[in-house]
Amino acid sequence: MRRLDLSFFNRPTLLVAQELLGKEIFFKAQKAIITETEAYIGEDDPACHAAKGKTKRTAIMYGRAGFSYVYLIYGMYHCLNFVTEDEGFPAAVLIRAVQMKGVPKQKLNGPGKLCRFLGITTEHNGIDLLASDDFYVSDTGLCLPFTATPRIGISAGQEKEWRFLAQFSIE
DNA sequence: ACCCCGATCGTA
DNA sequence: ACGATCGGGGTT
How far is the CA of A105 from the C1' of B7 (A)? Predict the structure, then answer.
């Protein structure tokens, strides 16, 4: 299984979000198959954190593709994203659900829940997934069918169908 | 310094 | 339907 590299992440975000379905996250010796993603694309996307421009928090999204972007939401949950596209263009893919061998789906079917289960916090923001030995993404060879829907939990930008759900059940 | 709000989730 | 809980970002 080959690690995903710059040629995977440095592409149009919708394509990356779709193709991340079925890929495997390695985090501190844990393995999780990605089954749901959302795309957040550029300053013109009102739901994207970069809609307010470049700030200390969003700077990572303006950087090179293949870095982690982890932020705290509602004071108690974390959300994991992967930075996409060319340096200077802010975009990322939110990981909304994963599946792990022997773990009930219900523990992993939300962006906050999967981060809590895996132990991902803001401490893991800005990690280079192309270089780290305990945080990266691999190709499993899986190519999953998926459906597209509006993104969840946002107030603006609901007309875009930028949420992608894979049809998949581990084992 | 103050205020508002949020890419959520569990409980009611 | 609602509250927990706190940092980011804008405003005073």
Answer: 20
**Strand C closer than 7 Å to the CB of A57?**
yes
- Both tokens of A150, joined, read 């509006």
- A111, closest nucleotide (Cα–C1'): B8
All residues at 6 or more sequence positions from A96 whose CB lies less than 8 Å from its CB, including other chains? A36, A37, A38, A110, A111, A114, A152, A163
Reading chain A (171 residues) residue by residue, the pLDDT tens digits are 899 999 999 999 999 999 999 999 999 999 999 999 999 999 999 999 999 999 999 999 999 999 999 999 999 999 999 999 999 999 999 999 999 999 999 999 999 999 999 999 999 999 999 999 999 999 999 999 999 999 999 999 999 999 999 999 998
Rounded Cα gap, residues A24 and A54, in angstroms: 30
**Strand B contacted by A151 CB (< 7 A):** yes
Domain boundaries, chain A: 6-166
pLDDT digits (tens, 9 = 90+) for A94-116: 999 999 999 999 999 999 999 99
**Backbone dihedral angles phi then psi of residue A127, each to the nearest 5 degrees:** -90, 140
Topology classification of domain A6-166: 3-methyladenine DNA Glycosylase; Chain A (3.10.300)
Count of all residues that appear for chain A in the document: 171
